[in-house]
Every structure is written in structure tokens, then in C-alpha cells.
């Protein structure tokens, strides 16, 4: 029995050792995990909807990503590029995507489109990134003509379109303001500053709930800014608060202001009763706040002792106006226009909300929408029995609050130039942009990469406040013109008193070429816009009654000039004297450019 047990124990020991060795239990062996399967590079097929287009045509491009037989359908996104054009990323659906290339995005000539595939987390373990190319798409420049009818005389032009707001929070004795305004061709100013007007008390330079600049007295405003600059003045009367800040505005305060203005020859031509009184954001201590009937009664008529009659008694030459908001406050305009006396109406235009800014909308459509609003207002005035009442656009901007990088960009400059053209064509006699100096917003606004521009700050002011304003220090030395101010500078060559609007008709690339025209000292002035960001626009200009010109002068402000601001260079427009020319005149408009053409 002893030998049997010894043999059994020996057998068990040998078996256990073998088992431990096989399992690695003795540390004497290991295994290598198998390598991951090789990734597949998918095939990318790029199919444009057409092989030949013009710069005025859009292009649809189908992209298919094929992983091959037996593989899962690729997921992820694709981008499309050619030259300076790159699309945003488009998510694949069942391995396919369609990219719509906007008109004018591709350069003139042969364009090969490259689709770049990026797998998402679901496909990244299976597929490599990949690219595919299309066959060539040939892009030809569309023939665009601008025909000016010199016999079709439109509205008389007023240089008071070239206006800027200023506010009582800014020091009007600042020496740089007048030369900057004069260099930009500014002819008119509005004061004391938007919503501040309903809290500002001119006689004491005080505010209800705020503090004006200590130098912002009315006397300083006139002596240091208005008189040396020979600017026409519009004042906003305080409708909201009395001097004690305990009740509503006092019309005798407004009348006394006009009497003082007359005594010192302050060049006040307009006074509006209150600022945006239809809006709940305005301070208003009347028993019924921001109420149309209350407002109309306070303005009064020529025979009642309201704002209108008292201001007129102080100076009969001053035009008295009321606030309007066409189509947006339906209970306001009809009541005010039918129940008060006024010599003009004041309208404010800001087409965008903060955070929702769009370069495409601002450049392509916002200025045209202003004309739609002006036409609505004209209809309201006709309904009220006052069809020819002058319209003053007292505030203009691109976004109604919290401006970001777009405010310093070429995009707002192009919008501003078109706004001036629309106002000229609409017969508007006076306008003031919000604002000249003193309203930097720093980095608080929309600085999204979806907006074109080199700045990471914004501001309402279109002239630089200088490096002391640290929030906008990159805007240049004090008085430096932004693209918006450059638009005013260029348009000052066209918006000249005594001249008249002419009809300019664009044929061809009507999506990107805009034209405005006017008489000009015996010649003809045009303002031509190329609203295409990346492609030049060849244009032929003809005049109905002229086949030669003794001289042609072209001034241009463009994206290429603005782009220098990425290096803190705020370049001026270029000027080219073409000399004697036979008409029609062939020109090439730079991408994203505003061009003033004077034909003698």
C-alpha cells in the first residue's frame, strides 16, 4: 500500500506542475494579443451638378463615401474646398452628402473640388480619413452692365445724410473729433445721445440716474464741436423726466433750450420730442408710460401748449418731430401721426439682434430692408394725411445692442455704404449713424468665427477713441476711420447739396453688383458695390447721353484694404485717375468693395 500511495502522489505532482506551466502560473510564459484589423481607406466620389457655371450661379455638389463590399456604411462628415473656398462641415447621411456652393464662391477659371472625409467616433476604428476630387468646373465671369439714365432725374440730394450721433457721456472738447468728422465728410450731428435724452437736463448738464461728462455742457458742445465744424444740429428734447426727476418731461425745458440755441447761433435745425418713446426701455414718468395717446397729447398741435407750439414759439425755423416705429408698434404710429402736429418724423433702424449677426444678411439684404421700412412709413404718413412729411433716420446701426467684431469689419462698411445709397434714392433728407465717438463695447459682443473680421472686439463708434480706450485699443489712434467711416468718406463725394438722384440699372450679376448714381457738378457720380467676398466683378458702365469723358476718377475701399487691419493698419481708400475715356467704361470691381466713380 505504501508504494501505491507514493506513486499516486508523484503522478499528481507532475500533473499539477504541467497544469501550472500551461496556465502561466509559474511566470515562465506569456501570449501576444492579436493586432487590430487594418483600417480601410474609403473611396470618395465628388459629382458637381454642372461642369460650367457663371459667377452668378450656385453649384450643387454630391459627395459619396464608399467603404467597399462587406464594410459598414461610413459615418462622419465632409468638407469641400477649391482655392480660397472651403465649405462648412456637412454630416454624411447613408454615406452621402450634398454641399451647396453659393454663387461667386469659386474663382473664375477651372476649379477642381476636393472633398475631405473625416470619420466620426463610430467609423474611426474602421476607416481612414480620405479625399476625393471632382472633374473640373469651369467658372466664367458674367457680363454685368450698369446703365445710367441721365434724363431720369430723381429726388434732390441732401448732404445731411452724412450725419453722426454724439452723446453727453463723451467730452465734446476732444480736439480730434472735428478734424475726423471733416475728413469723413460729416455734415450733421445729433445730441445728447439716444436714451440719455429722456434723462438729460441741458441747463445744468445733469442726468436723472446718471452722470454726464463734466465737459459736456451745451455751450461746450456748440463752441468746441458744432461751430468749428459747421455741423447742422438735431436735438432730442427730454420727454421722460423733469429737472427734479420726479415727474414727466417739461416742454418749457425744451423751448428754453431752443431759445438758448438761437441766441448762440447753434445751427439747430431739428428737435425731436423724446427718444424711441414707443419702447418700454425708455425712461418715462408720465402716468401712462410709453403710451401713444399720452405722447401725442404732450406733443400737441399748433394751437395747444405742448412741445410743438412752445418750441415753435422759441424759434419758428426749427423743425419739430415725433418718434415713429413703422410696422413694429401698430398701436403707436397711427395714433401719433393722426393726433399730433409735426414737421418731420424720426425713425431708427437696426436690422440685427445681438448674437444673431449674419454677414450674408448684412451685406446682401439689410440695406434693401431699410427701403422697405421707409416705404411702410411713407404709407403710414399718407394714411394720416401727411404724405410728403420729411423722414429723418436719427439712428442707424447694424445691431441694436452689444456690438461685436462685425461692427469693425468691411461687412458693416459695405452695409453702411448701401444704406447711404438707399436713403439717397428714397429721398430721405437727414440721417445720423449711431455713433461717432465714445461707445466701445470691448470683447462683450459676438466675436464668432462665423463672422468675417480681424478684430476680437467691437463698438458702436465708427471713429477710434484711441489707445486710452483699452477695450478697443486695436482700432488705431484717436480719430482713425473704421470701414463704416470710410463708407461715409467715399459717399461724401456723391451726397452733395444741389445734386439729384439718377436712375442706375444693373443687368447681369444682380446678386452681387449694386449701383447708385447722381448728378455731379455737370458730370455723373456712381457708387458701385461688389458684394462677392472672393471674386472680382467686371462691369461695363454706360451713360445715356454721353459717349466720352474728359476725366474718370475712381476711389475704392475694399476687403483687401480692410485686411491690413490684422496688422493694425487701417488703410485709406485708393484713388485712380483714368484720364480721358471713351464710354461705355469697362471696370473691374475688387471683391467686397465700394467704388465711387466720377465721370466728367
Automatic annotation (TrEMBL):
Keyword Signal: yes
Presence of keyword Signal: yes
Record's keyword terms, sorted: Signal
Signal peptide: 1-24
Listed InterPro entries: GH (IPR017853), Glyco_hydro_b (IPR013780)
Name under which the protein is recorded: Alpha-L-arabinofuranosidase
Native source species: Telmatobacter sp. DSM 110680
Amino acid at each position: 500500500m505504501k508504494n501505491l500511495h507514493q506513486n499516486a502522489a508523484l503522478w499528481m505532482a507532475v500533473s499539477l506542475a504541467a497544469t501550472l506551466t500551461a496556465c502561466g502560473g509559474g511566470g515562465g510564459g506569456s501570449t501576444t494579443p492579436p493586432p487590430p484589423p487594418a483600417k480601410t481607406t474609403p473611396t470618395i466620389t465628388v459629382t458637381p451638378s454642372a461642369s460650367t457655371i457663371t459667377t452668378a450661379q450656385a453649384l450643387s455638389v454630391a459627395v459619396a463615401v464608399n467603404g467597399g463590399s462587406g464594410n459598414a456604411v461610413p459615418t462622419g462628415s465632409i468638407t469641400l474646398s477649391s482655392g480660397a473656398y472651403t465649405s462648412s462641415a456637412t454630416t454624411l447621411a447613408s454615406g452621402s452628402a450634398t454641399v451647396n456652393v453659393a454663387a461667386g464662391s469659386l474663382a473664375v477659371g477651372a476649379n477642381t473640388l476636393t472633398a475631405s472625409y473625416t470619420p466620426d467616433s463610430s467609423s474611426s476604428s474602421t476607416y481612414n480619413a480620405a479625399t476625393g476630387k471632382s472633374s473640373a468646373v469651369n467658372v466664367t465671369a458674367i457680363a454685368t452692365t450698369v446703365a445710367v439714365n441721365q434724363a431720369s432725374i430723381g429726388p434732390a440730394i441732401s448732404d445731411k445724410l452724412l450725419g453722426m450721433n454724439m452723446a453727453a457721456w463723451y467730452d465734446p472738447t476732444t480736439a480730434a473729433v472735428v478734424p475726423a468728422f471733416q475728413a469723413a465728410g460729416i455734415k450733421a450731428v445729433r445730441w445728447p445721445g439716444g436714451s440719455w435724452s429722456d434723462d438729460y437736463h441741458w441747463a445744468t448738464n445733469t442726468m436723472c440716474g446718471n452722470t454726464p461728462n463734466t465737459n459736456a455742457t451745451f455751450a461746450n458742445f456748440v463752441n468746441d464741436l458744432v461751430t468749428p465744424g459747421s455741423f447742422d444740429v438735431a436735438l432730442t428734447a427730454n420727454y421722460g423726466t423733469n429737472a427734479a426727476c420726479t415727474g414727466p418731461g417739461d416742454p418749457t425745458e425744451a423751448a428754453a433750450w431752443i431759445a438758448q440755441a438761437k441766441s448762440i447761433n447753434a445751427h439747430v435745425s431739428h428737435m425731436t420730442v423724446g427718444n424711441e418713446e414707443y419702447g418700454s426701455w425708455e425712461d418715462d414718468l408720465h402716468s401712462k408710460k410709453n403710451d401713444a395717446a399720452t405722447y401725442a397729447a404732450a406733443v400737441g398741435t399748433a394751437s395747444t401748449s405742448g412741445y410743438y407750439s412752445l418750441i415753435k414759439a422759441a424759434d419758428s425755423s426749427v423743425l419739430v418731430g415725433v418718434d415713429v416705429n413703422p410696422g413694429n408698434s401698430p398701436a403707436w404710429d397711427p395714433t401719433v401721426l393722426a393726433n399730433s402736429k409735426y414737421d418731420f418724423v424720426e425713425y431708427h433702424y437696426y436690422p440685427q439682434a445681438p448674437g444673431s449677426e449674419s454677414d450674408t444678411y448684412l451685406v446682401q439684404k439689410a440695406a434693401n430692408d431699410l427701403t422697405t421700412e421707409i416705404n411702410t412709413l411713407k404709407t403710414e404718413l399718407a394714411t394720416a394725411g401727411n404724405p410728403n412729411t420729411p423722414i429723418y433716420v436719427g439712428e442707424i446701426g447694424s445691431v441694436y445692442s452689444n456690438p461685436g467684431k462685425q461692427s469693425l469689419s468691411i461687412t458693416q462698411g459695405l452695409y453702411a455704404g448701401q444704406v447711404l445709397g438707399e436713403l439717397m434714392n428714397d429721398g430721405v433728407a437727414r440721417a445720423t449713424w449711431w455713433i461717432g465717438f465714445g461707445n466701445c463695447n470691448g470683447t462683450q459682443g459676438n466675436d464668432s468665427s462665423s463672422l468675417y473680421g480681424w478684430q476680437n472686439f467691437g463698438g458702436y463708434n465708427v471713429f477710434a477713441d484711441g489707445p486710452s480706450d483699452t477695450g478697443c485699443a486695436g482700432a488705431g489712434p484717436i480719430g482713425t476711420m473704421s470701414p463704416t467711416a470710410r463708407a461715409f468718406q467715399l459717399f461724401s463725394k456723391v451726397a452733395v447739396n444741389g445734386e439729384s438722384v439718377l436712375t442706375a440699372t444693373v443687368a447681369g450679376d444682380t446678386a452681387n453688383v449694386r449701383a447708385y448714381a447722381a448728378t455731379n457738378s455737370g458730370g455723373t457720380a456712381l457708387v458701385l458695390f461688389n458684394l462677392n467676398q472672393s471674386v472680382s466683378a467686371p462691369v461695363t458702365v454706360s451713360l445715356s447721353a454721353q459717349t466720352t469723358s474728359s476725366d474718370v476718377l475712381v476711389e475704392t475701399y475694399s476687403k483687401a484694404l480692410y485686411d491690413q487691419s490684422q496688422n493694425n493698419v487701417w488703410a485709406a481708400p485708393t484713388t485712380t485717375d483714368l484720364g480721358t475715356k471713351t464710354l461705355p467704361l469697362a471696370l473691374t470691381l475688387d471683391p467686397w468693395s465700394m467704388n465711387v466713380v466720377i465721370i466728367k
